[in-house]
Amino acid sequence: MKKVFPISFFLFFTLTGMAQNVGIGTTTPGAKLEVVGGVKISDSLNIGNQVRIMSGTLTSNTNAGDGGTHPFGEYHRDNAIQAWASVNASGSLFASYGVVSPLTHVTGEYTFTLQVGAIDNTRLAIVAIPEIDAPPISAAAARLISVNTINGTTFKVYITNGNYVLTDNDFMVIVTGR
After folding, report:
1. Domain assignment present for 139
2. Where is the signal peptide, in residue numbers (predicted)?
3. N or C: which end of the chain has fewer CB within 10 A?
4. Residue 135 pLDDT > 90
């Protein structure tokens, strides 16, 4: 009986020890592995064959845009924002995300190229909003916007006044897509 007890005791604690959660930076992990604090990965991290982080690039195998690779920290899901830009009248960017700069610009016509295109190259959802400093009191002061999707990475924004004359104007554009 004396020999059975130590072996049983050892097996009990070995098996229960294997069933516990592991914590780094925490004494009460709530998952199989919980890390509290920064994580430095010097090689690569593969998460369920769906997301892979390697050499500073985050790659998703599904719904991540054309080619499936985005710079680190820019993981996209289906129909998420692909790009946005705040553009001044001359076509230069005040601020942007996911837009190649500089823009091609002629009066009232702004051509955008995205850093990462949509999977379905005809299904960009583009919203553009003109910036107006005061309420328009005439057709010449009003701003109308039209957009044209060229392909999955290129689109145009046209700005006209209320008389349908192409006009330069500050505006904001947001692009979602699949």
Report:
1. yes
2. 1-19
3. N
4. yes
DSSP for 1-24? -TTHHHHHHHHHHHHHHHTS-EEE
pLDDT at 83: 86
**Sign (positive or negative) of CA dihedral 89, 94, 97, 102:** positive
151 & 172 share domain: yes
pLDDT above 60: residue 77:
no
What is the number of domains present in the chain?
A: 2
Vertex 178 angle, CA 116 and 66, to 5°: 35
Do residues 100 and 116 lie in contact, with contact meaning Cβ atoms separated by under 8 Å? no
Dihedrals φ, ψ of 149, to 5°? -85, 120
Q: Is residue 167 part of a domain?
A: yes
Q: Give a yes or no: residue 36 inside a domain.
A: yes
Q: Is 3 a domain residue?
A: no
Give CA torsion, residues 17, 21, 24, 27, to 10 deg. -80
CA angle 132–159–119, rounded 5-degree value: 110
CA separation for the pair 118, 105 (Å, rounded):
23
3-state DSSP call for residue 152? coil
